[in-house]
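Re: the 465-residue chain
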Amino acid sequence: MQNSSAFQFIAIDQIHESTTNPRLTFEQSKLDELAESIRQHGLIQPVTVRPNANGFEIVAGARRFRASQLAELFSIPARIVELDDAAAMEWQLVENSQRVDVHPYEEAQGFQRLLDMPGYDVAALVLKSGKSASHIYARLSLLQLIPDVAQAFVEERITASHANLIARLPQEHQAAAFEQCWRKDWNDKEPHLLPAKHVTAWIETNLYLALADAPFDLEDIGLNPAAGACVTCPRHSGYNTSLFADVQGDQCLDGLCYQAKIAAHIERELAARPQLVQIETTWRPAKEQRPGILPKHSYRELDTPDNSDAEPLCPNTKSALIVFGRHAGQTIAVCTDDHCPVHDPATAARLAKQEADNPAPVMEPATEEETEEAEEQRRADYEQRRKEHEAEEQRREEERKAEFERRQKEYEAERKRREKLSRARAATFDRILDNAPVMFTGAHLRAFLRLLVHIDPYEFLEEVV
């Protein structure tokens, strides 16, 4: 052992890693980079160790120690400190919490180890680590993950956003939520990870459903006789506020029962008010849509509340019941005309421009000396101008409709053309794959590289074949 004023050089075979270090995973490529730097410049920052029966245990600097082993150093600079187990764990926690690359699950395990020791609580962790209480609570909640989800998180198959969303759920629902993280499309060999917002949407629809937003009567026992009324059901957060102190509002925890009550409420409303327009507020494939129901973007939701006794704002204002999607079961007011002059700003602007370009005729006021013949002539002139104005308006409307129909036909023709090209392209790809050589010759490779440079998704395939 070589002495130094600031630290000591210790033989690397006398140093071993700590079993309580929160950090368990190290990226091999980063270790290799650090090892190469140590070979060229040496270990600039000493590790921190404490003596024990087996030599020296690392308190801080496990990554530097591993890189020094890769660099095949005989000894490394170390600062020796006298620490008991609690103080050593505290040092390790603080040292790792200041690093940006420590895994959240490992950080949570470090927090929990300290909490298991006497004299430590969340307030003490806040003081010693410098992290906020909300950060610590969020990390500790990750320890509630079921093993399959925790393993996927540690292996970074899901992100921290996915893990935090699932960790807040009861463990009996976590497996179902974990399945919602993935989707396998028709061209996927393996399921791919979806953004966390998809999991959030699934949780909002199936779990932690706000009873304040329920479209049905919470005291109605007839919607689901087996479950009874919501106010007396034990499967909502308001039934045990101590257990769900962190949950905002009164939440239903039984998504299947909640959805069953919404379905029963919708059937009851349609039976009582058959004149209701049925709408969907969330897009879904056409083959899944029910006939007679207006899909999303086929109506305009109005800001005015639904009131069947009030005078409608336009002839196409209807009372509508949401039968699928967000706010299912609620009744709202909608306008079913895409070109309503009252509710469609584009139509209103077009009509205003037409009025400015071709204003409606106004009858001239009568004079004091007007005779009966003059009055008749004035009225006749007005009727003639009015008829001409209406004829012009009708002509412009017919031109507009004809132009719209022409554009629709062009759009449909273009869509069919693209579908035909897409089918032909898919068939050509199949032929390419069926007849592809096992190995490329020089001619094959030159043709392939040329096509990559001058790629045209519709034209190059026949040349490949």
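Residues 267 and 371 are 68 Å apart (CA to CA).
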